[in-house]
Amino acid sequence: METISIINAKDYVDQKVRIGVWLTNKRSSGKIAFLQLRDGTAYFQGVVVKNNVSEDVFKLAKEVRQEASMYVTGTIHEDTRSHFGYEIEIEDIELVGQSEDYPITPKEHGTDFLMDHRHLWLRSKRQFAIMKIRNEMIRATYEFFNKEGFIKLDSPILTGSAPEGTTELFHTEYFEKDAYLSQSGQLYAEAGAMAYGKVFTFGPTFRAEKSKTRRHLIEFWMIEPEMAFMHQEESLEIQERYIAYLVEKVLENCDYELDILGRDKEVLKRYTQLPYPRISYDDAIKLLQESGKFPDVKWGEDFGSPEETYLAEHFNKPVFVLNYPKAIKPFYMKPHPTREDLVVCADLLAPEGYGEIIGGSERATDTEYLAKQIEDAGLNKADYEWYLDLRRYGSVPHSGFGLGLERAVTWITGEDHIREAIPFPRLLNRIYP
Ligand code: 4AD
Ligand code: MG
Fold first, then answer.
1. How far, in Å, from the CA of 289 to the mean position of ligand 2?
2. Could you tell me which residue ranges the Aminoacyl-transfer RNA synthetases class-II family profile domain spans (predicted)?
């Protein structure tokens, strides 16, 4: 007899197997007990029929509590009534760990309660589905960039630089010096691109944002590809192919999980069709003004979440907004060749109200220009000499971008809030568990 995982039940129909499981819920009468089981690979039902098992086993089936762990032994049957399609008719139960009164019950709980019990909440079915999809997106990310000839380069977490501005930095001490938790691996990725051509970083990034929104985490994971000998237009093509690839792989490999979440797969399929529309910042402003819905929108300002939602809904697909005003973007972006008030950059806005999922640009290559930009941004030039060296020794046109993993997971899974997209979210004033 084999010990198997629930997900493989389809290969063992009418065979006797053993599975290590936790109990998620149960229902029983005098003659039969239905145990809802999970093992981390899937959820299915175990049936214990009083007349077919020993008295001890039936007693145990009635005594096990929610989240108790056990080995169940029995025969796999097809179960056309359940979405999963299989169940196990249990003959024997070996209790491994009985459970105390489990705090998370099938009834409704408030968000704060669930967040306080995040370490247990992760066991629930929706969280399971989201984490599996997150995992698939991570897997597909490595696959995509490796196929495209990128190498993964690890950027440091402790750093002396602040690429995305000084207002949202986590400060710490580094022996006698100041250090920050990384906001972005980009500047190091640029060094990597000059060394190895095409690289991507993928690591945790930190923003001490005082904002409490559905889209902001304090700690989030970012994928930052950086490509040497590449202009922005070609970078946009990589970006859209990457996003379409993520959606395709989730559709291909996470059908069960998308069903658990009730995510509309036809809608997701639309996002695999390329190209994504492109609109300039100038035209986006006009579109918003002409819609009559945003009377206060002015050229020169960053978009808020209602504006981003409107733009992506207008195209019904992810949309690139190109060439924002220089004044609202970071120091490293390439100045526009004919418009000195713009930079060569793009944000990719996701539809269905999910907002910006990618920020990227072509990078400035002129040493003097960059040095001035660094000083104008209120940064200490000495801390960026190494970055300026990248321009001093064989500078080339290069471009890159950053995808916020949790923003993308929230969008693809169709969740309302970004806190669902990471196992242990770090939110404003929350660091437990
Ligand atoms: O637009 P951002 O700040 O760009 C950068 O950090 C660049 N260095 C990227 C690059 O060109 N290499 O951040 C990039 C993405 C955003 O589009 C968003 O998806 C995500 O990171 N992001 C956040 N996700 C969750 N919580 C936050 N507080 C986020 N801030 C940015
Ligand atoms: Mg951005």
1. 22
2. 131-433
Examine the domain organization and report whether 90 and 190 are in the same domain: no
Q: Are 146 and 267 in the same domain?
A: yes
Domain hosting 66: range is: 2-97
Mean pLDDT of all residues in 3-15: 98
Asked if residue 406 has its Cβ within 6 Å of ligand 1, the reply is yes
Closest by alpha carbon to 248, among 354, 350, 137, 148?
Answer: 137
Residues 409 and 325 in one domain: yes
The pLDDT score that the predictor gives to residue 267 is 97
| Domain assignment present for 335 | yes
pLDDT tens digits, 27-49? 998 999 999 999 999 999 999 99
Phi, psi of 122 (to 5 degrees): -55, -20
Q: Please work out whether the CB of residue 224 comes within 6 Å of at least one atom of ligand 1.
A: yes
Pocket test for ligand 1, best of 243, 347, 406, 407 (most atoms within 8 A of CB): 407
**How many domains does the structure of the chain reveal?**
2
Instruction: Clarify whether residues 64 and 147 are in a common domain.
Output: no
Query: CA–CA separation, 260 vs 114, rounded Å?
Result: 19
Evaluate whether 39 touches 4 at the Cβ level (below 8 Å).
no
At residue 322's C-alpha, the angle toward residues 406 and 362, to 5°, is 80
pLDDT in tens, 80-109: 998 899 999 999 999 999 999 999 987 889
- State whether the beta carbon of 404 lies less than 6 angstroms from ligand 1: yes
Inside any domain, residue 432? no
CB 226 within 8 A of CB 403: no
Tally helices (H) and strands (E) across the chain. Answer: 13, 17
The minimum-distance atom of ligand 1 relative to the CA of 360 is 11
Which amino acid makes up residue 285? I
| Complex-level ipTM beyond the 0.90 threshold | yes
Q: Report the CATH number at residue 85.
A: 2.40.50.140
Which ligand gives the minimal distance to the CA of 205? 1
Atom of ligand 1 nearest to the CA of 356: 17
Please check whether residues 279 and 406 belong to one and the same domain.
yes
334 and 217, same structural domain? yes
- Say which CATH number the domain at 138 has: 3.30.930.10
- The finding on whether 210 has its CB within 6 A of some atom of ligand 1 is no
Q: Are residues 239 and 164 in the same domain?
A: yes
> How many CB atoms are located within 10 Å of the residue 195 CB?
12
Would residue 428 count as lying in a domain?
Answer: no
pLDDT tens figures, 155-184: 999 999 998 988 899 999 999 999 999 999
